[in-house]
Automatic annotation (TrEMBL):
Superkingdom as given in the UniProt entry: Bacteria
Keyword annotations: Aminotransferase, Iron, Iron-sulfur, Metal-binding, Pyridoxal phosphate, Transferase
MF GO annotations: cysteine desulfurase activity; iron-sulfur cluster binding; metal ion binding; transaminase activity
Record has Metal-binding as a keyword: yes
Domain Aminotransferase class V, first and last residues per copy: 2-365
Organism of this sequence: Companilactobacillus ginsenosidimutans
PANTHER family in the cross-refs: CYSTEINE DESULFURASE ISCS 2-RELATED (PTHR11601:SF50), CYSTEINE DESULFURYLASE FAMILY MEMBER (PTHR11601)
Family label: Belongs to the class-V pyridoxal-phosphate-dependent aminotransferase family. NifS/IscS subfamily.
InterPro entries given in the database record: Aminotrans_V_dom, Aminotrans_V_PyrdxlP_BS, Cysteine_dSase, PyrdxlP-dep_Trfase, PyrdxlP-dep_Trfase_major, PyrdxlP-dep_Trfase_small
Cofactor or coenzyme needed: pyridoxal 5'-phosphate
Membrane-spanning parts: none
Keyword Electron transport: no
Protein name: Aminotransferase V
Length: 381
């Protein structure tokens, strides 16, 4: 089996699963309970928070646990909108955000908020000047992803941050779900960012666990009311085993991160160079510093993306169309649509997404199968 769908989800690491199992069996107390079993679980919870903060360069009290990227994005965007509604109801985002952002924005529009969707250029990047020109007196939030989940474009977070230096009252949120562990922290970690979203299952932690960064001094309106966990910000009994496992996964992710990213880029380069030698293909991901090292989006022209995905699946090779959250709906890539890509091309798009466990041998085997599938569909067309 070759698994090239790591942007959708990653396989849980064996040692991470071991951590999860041990924590489930030995730290089963409720962290809010006063007895020693509760205290034991609470100490594991807080040591995990401290480790995650240390690895990310945050302060422990700036880390809040969630169920993953979708909850994190919803909480930050809605929590900001509700907290700051007396100061304005204008939000700026990009036209290529993940559905958990786009659909949240749509909900807020129904509640009377106004959202500006920044266009992207032909490579899938927003313009810092466009963002600057979109700012109004009633703008309360800018939300732009670090790395696009469909084509891998790295958005100009640093440039946006420098614009927002002049607007300290505007909150700045970055969805870092696809960016973490890819050796590009210097392009999206910035002191001006107020909130980050991360999801554990993107880096070999269990599904259903994630965390957000909330800068010291910032506030969000809680979405979940209840027992007051997470300093009253996110009620609900904490998933202590998954949190401990996520801390373990993040430590492994950060170990030799640059070397791992270089290996991913090597495989990406092999694939893109080969794709560029084939007829009737389009490659949307670039070999440049403003693209992440792990995502390759391309087409076999004239073949719908889901057809190509299932053809590879028959060969025990797993890739995806574009966003896993939209793929089952058979929709064209929202990112490629925003890039003004023709519909007949966009509906042919597929995505290969790598991680540190993929090998050169796997990529060579993938390319061999790619050639056979490409030639087969060329004959049919």
């Amino acid at each position: 089996m070759i698994y090239f769908d790591n942007s959708a989800t990653t396989k849980i690491d064996d040692s991470v699963l071991k951590t999860y199992n041990i924590a489930s069996q030995e730290y089963f107390g409720n962290p809010s309970s006063l007895h020693k079993l509760g205290l034991k679980a609470f100490e594991l919870l807080e040591s995990s928070r401290k480790k995650i903060a240390e690895l990310m360069g945050f302060k422990p009290h700036e880390v809040f646990f969630t169920s993953g990227g979708t909850e994190g994005n919803n909480w930050i965007i809605k929590g900001t909108a509700f907290k700051k509604r007396e100061f304005g109801k204008h939000i700026i985002t990009s036209s290529i955000e993940h559905p958990s952002v786009m659909n949240t924005m749509a909900q807020l529009e129904q509640l009377g908020y106004e959202v500006t969707y920044l266009p992207v250029d032909k490579t899938g990047h927003v313009s810092v000047d466009d963002l600057k020109n979109a700012i109004r007196d009633d703008t309360i939030l800018v939300s732009v992803m670090a790395v696009n989940n469909e084509i891998g474009s790295i958005e100009p977070i640093k440039g946006i941050a420098r614009v927002l230096d002049d607007y300290p009252s505007i909150s700045f949120h970055v969805d870092g779900t696809q960016a973490i562990g890819k050796g590009i922290e210097d392009q999206f970690i910035d002191q001006r960012v107020d909130y980050y979203t991360f999801s554990g299952h993107k880096f070999h932690a269990p599904r259903g666990i994630g965390f957000i960064y909330m800068k010291e001094g910032k506030q969000l309106e809680p979405l979940l009311a209840g027992g007051g966990q997470e300093k009253g910000q996110r009620s609900g009994t904490e998933n202590t085993p998954a949190i401990a496992a996520m801390a373990r996964a993040l430590r492994l992710l950060k170990d030799n991160e640059d070397k791992k990213a270089a290996e991913m880029l090597k495989l990406k380069t092999m694939l893109i160079n080969h794709l560029n030698s084939l007829d009737n293909t389009h490659v949307f991901s670039k070999l440049s510093d403003d693209f992440a090292p792990h995502i390759v989006c391309f087409t076999l022209d004239g073949v719908r993306g889901e057809t190509t995905v299932h053809t590879f699946e028959d060969r025990d090779i797993y890739i995806s169309t574009t966003s896993a959250c939209s793929s089952k709906k058979g929709l064209e890539s929202s990112t490629l649509k925003a890039m003004n890509t023709r519909e007949n091309i966009a509906t042919s798009a597929i995505r290969v997404s790598l991680d540190e466990n993929n090998t050169e041998a796997e990529m060579k085997e993938f390319i061999k199968n790619l050639d056979e599938i490409h030639d087969h569909f060329q004959i049919l067309n």
